[in-house]
Model the fold of this input.
Amino acid sequence: MKKLLKDIHEKTPIPEDLDSRISQAIYRGTHSRRKLPYKKSLTSIAACFAIFVLLLNTNSAFAETMLDIPILNKLCRVFTFREYEFEDNKKIMNVKIPNISNTGNTDLENRINYQIRKTIQDAVEEFEVRVQEFYDAFVSTGGKPEDFMPIEININYDIKSSSESHVSFIITKFETSASAYQDTYYYNIDLVSGREITLRDLLGPNYKEIVSKQIEEQIENLDEERKFYLFEDVNISDLITPNSNFYINTDNNIVVVFNKYEIAAGAAGMFEFVIK
Done:
């Protein structure tokens, strides 16, 4: 398995400025202690660590190198398994497929990675069908093929938090057609049990009351512009289920997410509420 990952990772070049970026970060972190108060020095060191973690999670070749360092390899959870771009006269595709690795649970990795690949594959296939339908309709109504504006799809991922006990990340699909729209898939994984985490797991049997109460309080404090778009007949409690969309942020707080049109008009976009 590790050799396979290494072969995949070696195809992704490390940025040419990687060494200089790390050196500059370390230099700022170490030299700041001579000139700045202790708290500011800690801030600089934290910034250096943040850069390091960012590289682990966004550059697969760098992450693979770090797998050989026992103290650091526990940080390597998510990497870009495959990335491709495609463009023709009908469509533009930019796709990144993440995988999880180094969890110590092969069954978990195989199951989640299969789900991810299947989800993205289905999304791409559905997109291609829609593109062909748009194109056929455009041409059949008198449009010239050369005047057809290609439809674009972007699929990417964002790591929200990672620790020895869990990993939380999202996969986002953004598509442009007659109007732009977005789908988001949430992955919150307990690395100890190998299960996907639910709100009930985190907050107990009273999760619905806990979440809805905090969200309603935060809604009351929204500015008037955001409140204007909210639907009047929404019952937040009815929308909270064990499988509601959420991720875990770097402060280990739950962030519940409502998609466009779920609790407000589309112009308001998505709503996120931090549950402490």
About this structure: The chain is about 45% helix and 25% strand. Residues 1-15, 18-42, 65-73 have pLDDT under 50 and may be disordered.
